[in-house]
Amino acid sequence: MPFIRLVVAGTGGLAKLAIPAILSSTQPKFEVTILTRKTSSTPPSFPGAKVVQVDYSDHAELVRLSAGADAIVSLVNGGISRIVDRQLLAAAQEAGVRRIFPSEYSLEILHPSAQSLLTLDKPWPDNLAVVPLAKEFVDLANKGGPTSFTTIVPSAFIDEWVKGSFALFEPKNNKVTVLDGGDHPFTGSSLPFIAGCLVAALKMDEEKTKNKRLHVSEVRTTVNEIIRLYEKITGRGFERVPITTQELTEQRNRYFVDGQSFPAILTTIQIAAFGGGGAGDLEDGLQFDGDGFLDVKRKSIEQLVRDGLEKIGVV
User: Fold this and answer.
1) Cβ burial, residue 123 (10 Å; 0-12/13-18/19+)
2) What is the pLDDT of residues 3-25, one digit of tens each?
3) For the chain, percent helix, then strand, then coil, each to nearest 5?
4) Phi, psi of 91 (to 5 degrees)
5) Spatial distance between the Cα atoms of 109 and 197, rounded to a whole number of angstroms
6) Which residues pair with 215 in a beta bridge?
7) Buried b (16+ CB within 10 A) or exposed e, 56-72
8) What is the pLDDT of residue 261?
9) Angle, nearest 10°, between helix axes 245-257 and 261-274?
10) Residue 28: is the preceding peptide bond cis (ω within 30°)?
11) Do 84 and 9 contact (CB within 8 A), yes or no?
12) What per-residue string of b and e applies to 192-210 under the rule 16 or more CB within 10 Å gives b?
């Protein structure tokens, strides 16, 4: 039985691309209810979908809105997604929803190298504790409840990284911080590609995606290749600032000791993505085609870099 009736939580970031992609599907035609927080000043409008403002801490309300849904797709932004995903899971289980897609959309955080980076003597705050939550979803396979999970794992948001959204890459300043020489391969996916993969996963045979972490990748590249493309496209030389994994890890630990949780998690992602440990190099994801349902074509890394530079006005 295909997923037809969907509850989609969140309207920012990836949701701005994923929701239109879901609504544009005709085979099947999804019935979509979109949840947005009551604190939102102006509820967004998505023609073809019902938009409901909710208080995610109101369990009874979430259960009521989830009743009759085939799947819940969480697209909630930021650290709050860890809290909201647990609330959505509890509602899904009580309402008998068959599938939940948590808002992880990150590196393979259950890879041993990532788990070691994300496990410290002092626990992460709840809104940044990504490994325990990922394991909670994996454990659904052993609990035999009504709700299973599918997690889309796209590695780095490559279009955002090359624009300079998350540090290390600074194309506006003609500068890149190079980790461990810059030759570690890593994979990445643009936001439009991730949205397409999500829609494909919704259309696939649900038994093939049941309780699975689906690796999806658009490109495989290195930091040095991106620098060469910056220089080729802009015609300018770029400064390379060297740093080692050890130095970046020490910086991350200082952030954590000082209570700066967001810089700590961002630095952890930088190490996991570009440090060669494996959590950011999902080469198997390059083969993902959603059993033929993926209708977004992969772009080359050169095209993604060019697109990114154009969007920030560098070229």
Assistant:
1) exposed
2) 999 999 999 899 999 999 999 99
3) 45, 15, 40
4) -65, -40
5) 19
6) 153
7) beeeeebbebbeebbbb
8) 83
9) 160
10) yes
11) yes
12) bbbbbbbbbbbbbebeebe
The residue whose two tokens read 């490559």 is 158
Q: How many residues does the chain have?
A: 315
CB 97 within 8 A of CB 69: yes
Q: Give the pair of three-digit tokens for residue 192.
A: 């439009």
d(CA 296, CA 108): 22
Per-residue DSSP letters for 185-238?
-EEEE-HHHHHHHHHHHHHS-HHHHTTEEEE--SEEE-HHHHHHHHHHHH----
Q: How many CA atoms lie within 13 A of 234 on its CB side?
A: 23
115-172 per-position pLDDT tens digit: 988 876 566 677 778 899 999 999 999 998 999 999 999 999 999 999 999 989 999 9
